[in-house]
Structure formats: C-alpha cells, structure tokens
Amino acid sequence: MKELTLAISKGRILEEALQLLSKIGVECEESPFNSRKLIFETNLPYLKIIVVRASDVPVYIESGKVDMGIVGKDTLLETESNNHLRILDLKIAICKLIVAGKSNSKFFNNMKVATKYPAITKRFFHDKGLQCSVLKLYGSIELAAVLDMTDVIVDLVETGQTLKQNGLKELALIDKISSMLIVNKSSYKLYRDEINTFLTLLNK
Questions:
Q1: Which of 18, 115, 146, 189 could, after both became Cys, cross-link 154 (CB 3.0–4.6 A)?
Q2: Residues 6 or more apart from 91 whose CB is under 8 A from it?
Q3: Would the pTM of this model clear 0.85, i.e. be above it?
C-alpha cells in the first residue's frame, strides 16, 4: 500500500485534529507537541503526519509532495488556491470570520481595516461596492480598533468574549469557518483506494 502523508496546521487545528484521529484509532508514535520533529510516524503503516504552518498546508498539497492536508477554511479562502480537492468538512476548530469594531462603527468608502486576511477583506468590501485600505497584522488584531489605528477589523472569533472585553462588537459575518480535509488531485487519482480507506475511518 502506498504511504500517504497528511499535513496538519499547527495550533488549535492540530490539537483538535489529533483528538479526532485518536477517536478513530490513529495515533502518532511520538507527540508532535513534545518533539522538534517535522514528520511523525503513525500506528497506520500507510500514514505519516507532518506539522506545518496553516498557510503552508495548501502549498505542500499543491506541490504534490504531500497527499492530504487538514487546514482551516479561512486559509483556503485567503490563498484562493484550488489545485486540490476539498474532500470532507471535519467540523473541528469551528469559529467564524467577522468584521468587528466599536459599537458606533459604520461601513464607508476607503475605510481602514486591520486583519491578517487582506484578500478576503478586500473581496468582502468590494462586493459591497466599497474600497478599503488594509493594515496587515499577525496578532492582537482587536488592538488596532481599540487604539483607533483602523476603523474596523476582520478576524476569527470563537466565542466573542475577547471582542466584548475590549469594547468591540460583531458588525458583519463574512463566513462560518471549520477545518477541511483537502487532497492533492493527482494523489486522489493515483491512490484513490488508500485515501478512501482513510476516509472510511474518518466517516465512522
């Protein structure tokens, strides 16, 4: 049987993906949280797991060097990559991508928006007939709105508590987000049986 590689995003997705895999009897031989290794053997002889940054998952899949990946829908929307198959919504790492700001915030032309999702943000406002300028940040996105660096922010939220604690509120929903299993198109043609064997486990 062909050995498959599965790339998983670091962080919350990795935690929830490993919990999901454990429920279906798939275990890494070493914990990815306690090792500097990048590639991990599993108890399935045909499956290896690699751990990478979220934004790199589609890149590895589309290179053909990795067969499958688990990554957030937000990453796929931002990269607009489509040289893969979105096989299964795993319904893990569930959250939503929203526009948020102070309670009196309004949408207007040429507004400033802080986000780590510039492509999604520009598309969202463009669809509303508005231009925007994007300040790309990588952490504490809320702070940009709190300090009036920007008019609003676009960010992922899970419970909304961080927004409330910083005097911000949800202004618009862009999309509901969860994690997807994606597969390289060529891999699926060549190794359909092996991939479907893994999918059967996930669908139990």
A1: 115
A2: 178, 179
A3: yes
Q: What is d(CA 170, CA 178) in angstroms, rounded to the nearest whole number?
A: 19
Tokens standing for residue 84: 């893969």
List, in sequence order, the alpha helices (H) in 11-160.
12-23, 57-63, 73-79, 118-127, 142-146
pLDDT digits (tens, 9 = 90+) for 110-136: 999 999 999 999 999 999 999 999 999
Report the chain's C-alpha Rg in angstroms: 19
Percent of the chain with pLDDT over 90: 89
How much is the average pLDDT of 70-92?
92
Residue pair 122/114 in contact by the 8 Å Cβ criterion: no
Tokens representing 194 are 């092996």
In degrees, to the nearest 5, what angle opens at C-alpha 189 toward C-alphas 183 and 192? 75
Determine how β-strand 84-89 pairs with β-strand 179-184: antiparallel
What are the b/e assignments for 9-40, b being 16+ CB within 10 Å?
Answer: beebbbebbbebbeeeebebeeebeeeeeeeb
CB of 47 within 8 A of CB of 67?
no
Question: Strand pairing of 95-101 and 152-157?
Answer: antiparallel
- In contact, 182 and 68? CB cutoff 8 Å: yes
pLDDT (0 to 100) of residue 95: 97
* Residue position matching structure tokens 């599965």: 6
Give the tokens for residue 140: 């504490």
Q: Residues with Cβ < 8 Å from 133, sequence gap 6 or more? A: 110, 111, 112, 113
